[in-house]
Specification:
Blueprint (H helix, E strand, L loop, with lengths): L2 E3 L9 H7 L8 E3 L7 H5 L6 H13 L5 H12 L16 E5 L2 E5 L9 H19 L3 E6 L3 H10 L5 E8 L5 H8 L6 E6 L3 H13 L8 E3 L6 H17 L7 E6 L4 H11 L4 E8 L4 H8 L23 H8 L4 H11 L8 H10 L1 E4 L2 H15 L5 H13 L7 E5 L7 H6 L22 E3 L3 H11 L2
Parallel strand pairs: 4-12, 5-6, 5-8, 6-7, 7-13, 9-10, 9-12, 10-11
Antiparallel strand pairs: 1-2, 3-4
């Protein structure tokens, strides 16, 4: 398995190299040269497998021979197995499905240590990094930007890695208190939280610029934990297969509604479909920061001013992983993608008719404002006594509004536990949920983080000073 850049000018890499590379040297994102394909018969044979054993089937072709199968299986078992006392995920099903209405389901992806879907990828990523770095005898620097959930999941997944220093940037005063405390209360000489006086896109841009010029590291190498890292996307493909098999797949199709800001989570669903999983419909669910919805519905792929919403993990204006889809829409022509992404920085961009038609064949989309989001939380609790976090509520609303038919099971991805976002829950007229037992003392724990201006030189100087 080889991986190529969406901009066409970087060398092809194997899985181990892509794991450590993050962004390609030409500024693009790595994607597989070709997807592994599974027949309907092969997928059907996986019915009844545990989540860990299913993950082994799906992940193995992407890793190929860079990690021996026995070692890869051990890493996956360590991540997803629910046997024993040290398990990572608190629910025996790992990603349980819960029914909300006739053929409307939520896939609960919040039973990991940080109560968000990103645990599925980052717990695996941390273990893969530890394995590869130990084998290579290398030390690296992780530098990531977070709109709320990636940061704590990355720290939780990588904090035990002996060969990693972690620097996570989050927008100051623009993440929930629970999200911030989950990041800033984890202590370690190799863990550094930086609150940037700006928004998520500012944080993400500084990370991208740091990857482009790593001279400030004094010889160390940067590794990405954002969903630009291919291993993140790879891990997320698994739960689409899990949901399908749980609802009668592959003998019948499912549809999925995915709350998304950076396009990584729904891109994993697009890949699952490309690998042979019968997915009928993929719905892009966004909040008011709706560049993805505007692109698909109105062919308007232009930057607008970022809005601070009740669903802060989706407060993203530039969706990094959308570039991976654009690469496919443009027949994998890296030169066209380089030109398109360059123009996006300077002007309003639209897709030509051929690409737009193709995008609309693949995806539907829907945007939900804060008022509608709170209404969904209130209505769903009244009808089912299930409490949704605001991102999940957006996914449910988009599912209700955009589903093609009532016969196909529609799965809305529940991306976070509602305890992480108590303000919209209370605003919806519901009681704020209690923290789970492993976090019940979260607000009593001491915090450690640095507030820095929106200045790349200041951030890079801080990183350089604190590398162990």
């Amino acid at each position: 398995m080889k991986y190529i850049s969406t901009r066409g000018q970087a060398p092809a890499l194997n899985f181990e190299e892509v794991l450590l590379a993050g962004l390609a040297s030409d500024g693009g994102l790595y994607v597989p040269e070709e997807l592994p394909k599974f027949s309907k018969e092969e997928i059907a044979s996986w019915a009844g497998l545990s989540y860990a054993d299913l993950a082994k089937k799906i992940i193995a072709p992407f890793v190929a021979d860079t990690i021996p199968q026995q070692d890869l299986n051990a890493i996956i078992d360590d991540t997803y197995s629910t046997a024993g006392g040290d398990r990572v995920f608190a629910h025996d099903a790992v990603a349980p499905l819960k029914q909300l209405d006739a053929n409307l389901w939520v896939l609960e992806l919040f039973h990991g240590p940080t109560l968000a879907f990103k645990d599925f990828a980052l717990q695996l990523l941390g273990r893969l990094l530890d394995y590869v770095l130990e084998k290579r005898g290398e030390k690296v620097v992780i530098m990531g930007a977070t709109s709320g959930d990636t940061g704590s999941a990355a720290i939780e997944g990588c904090r035990r890695c002996d060969n990693v220093d972690i620097f996570i940037l989050h927008p100051h005063n623009r993440v929930s208190d629970v999200q911030r405390k989950q990041m800033t209360t984890i202590m370690g000489d190799n863990i550094h939280n930086i609150a940037i006086e700006g928004n998520f896109d500012d944080c993400q841009q500084m990370v991208k610029e740091s990857f482009a010029d790593q001279s400030f590291l004094g010889g160390r190498k940067l590794v990405a934990v954002n969903s630009i890292n291919w291993a993140r996307i790879m891990a997320q493909i698994v739960y689409y297969f899990h949901a399908s098999l749980s609802l009668g797949g592959p003998h019948r199709e499912i549809s999925c509604s995915v709350p998304t800001g950076n396009f990584g989570d729904i891109f994993a669903g697009y890949l699952a479909k490309g690998m042979g999983l019968p997915i009928k419909q993929l719905v892009v669910a966004t909040n008011c920061n709706d560049i993805l919805h505007r692109c698909i519905s109105n062919n308007d792929y232009s930057k607008q001013e970022l809005v601070h919403t009740l669903s802060p993990s989706m407060d993203i204006m530039v969706s990094s992983n959308f570039e991976r889809l654009l690469f496919d829409l443009h027949d994998r022509d890296g030169a066209q993608i380089s030109d398109l992404m360059e123009r996006l920085n300077n002007e309003a961009v639209s897709l030509d008719e051929k690409r737009l038609v193709k995008a609309r064949e693949l995806f539907d989309s829907y945007a939900v404002d804060d008022e509608a989001c709170c209404q969904v939380i209130a209505d769903m609790f009244e009808r089912t006594e299930e409490l949704l976090d605001p991102h999940t509520a957006i996914g449910v609303k988009a599912a209700q509004e955009q589903r093609w038919d009532a016969e196909t099971p529609m799965v809305a991805l529940a991306t976070a536990h509602p305890v992480k976002f108590p303000d919209p829950v209370v605003k919806a007229g519901c009681k704020a949920p209690d923290l789970p037992h492993h976090l019940e003392d979260l607000f009593d724990r001491p915090e450690r983080y640095e507030v820095l201006p929106k200045d790349l030189a200041a951030v890079q100087a801080f990183v350089s000073k604190h590398i162990s």
